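Table S2 (text version). Query chain:
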Amino acid sequence: MAVEGIDGAGTAAVANLLARWIERRGRRVHVVAWEASAPVRRAAADGRTRQSLTPRVAALLVAAEAHRRADELVKRQVDAGDIVIADRYAWTGVARDHARGLDPDWIAGLYERLPAPAVVVLVQERPDRVIGRTIDERLGPGRAEAVAPAFRAFLAAVAAGLDDLAAGRVTAPWPARTVVLELGEPLDDRLASARDAIRAVLDDDGSRAA
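Corresponding structure-token output:
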């Protein structure tokens, strides 16, 4: 299963809370975090390759890295009968690259061969609530004033893309049962709907879920 949301939305906390809940039901769970693509970071840091790092090239590199990590960290655990919870997954790639102007159908095709999650949990959050903290974590204190306007617009576009994926307005890599944790409710109340969806999956297939 996958927990999706913008930077700072609390996806890691939700993934870990759901993992502990599943473990209490007697299943072994692995939480796998989405990580920035090392090839993209290297290319962006190198003046000789930065100009060649177009959004399309970056999307291809990120998708290739996602497939490599899935082979190493997801498929093996699933084949062993364990449950894998991805703290961000393919929806993150689709929404981010769509926010950079790429065609969502093309992006979805880059991820369609990844293991499909049985449940996608979307953690909604307002970009203006998390932007300062996210910038400080990424770039260090004092950079918010310079980069906040552009980054706020990017986060808003990513959030809109994730909402569109959940609503079926944008092509997803594969169909999945979707649970939206909406704003304005206590976290435990918000998690109840996710637990219900996961419980149904575990009851349907007691031997394997991803």
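Notes on Table S2: The two ends are 5 Å apart (CA to CA). The chain is about 60% helix and 10% strand.
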